[in-house]
């Protein structure tokens, strides 16, 4: 990976694709890809609460709004 990357921000708008399905996919992907880089995830749309609940208590930093997500990313990059 790029040593200059300090944080990754993933913003998902779940319309047809449900946020809980996206959360399951992210959990599986990051089980296979080990990284020390902080990951901030913002989920909004269909089943967003369920998706966020699946990600709580994991190594992901979960945000409800884009503003909150960007603030988290900035803080984690320092």
Automatic annotation (TrEMBL):
Signal sequence, renumbered to the chain: none
GO molecular function: nucleotide binding; succinate-CoA ligase (ADP-forming) activity
Ligase keyword on record: yes
InterPro entries named among the record's database cross-references: SUCC_ACL_C (IPR005811), Succinyl-CoA_synth-like (IPR016102)
A GO cellular component annotation in the UniProt record: succinate-CoA ligase complex
Domain ATP-citrate synthase/succinyl-CoA ligase C-terminal: start-end pairs: 2-73
Keyword vocabulary terms for this entry: Ligase, Nucleotide-binding
GO BP: succinyl-CoA metabolic process; tricarboxylic acid cycle
Protein name: Succinyl-CoA ligase [ADP-forming] subunit beta
């Amino acid at each position: 990976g790029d040593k200059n990357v300090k944080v990754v921000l993933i913003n998902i708008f779940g319309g047809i694709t449900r946020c809980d399905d996206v959360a399951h996919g992210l959990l599986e992907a990051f089980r296979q890809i080990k990284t020390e880089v902080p990951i901030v995830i913002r989920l909004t749309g269909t089943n967003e609460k369920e998706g966020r609940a699946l990600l709580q208590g994991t190594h992901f930093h979960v945000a409800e709004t884009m503003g909150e997500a960007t603030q988290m990313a900035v803080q984690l990059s320092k």
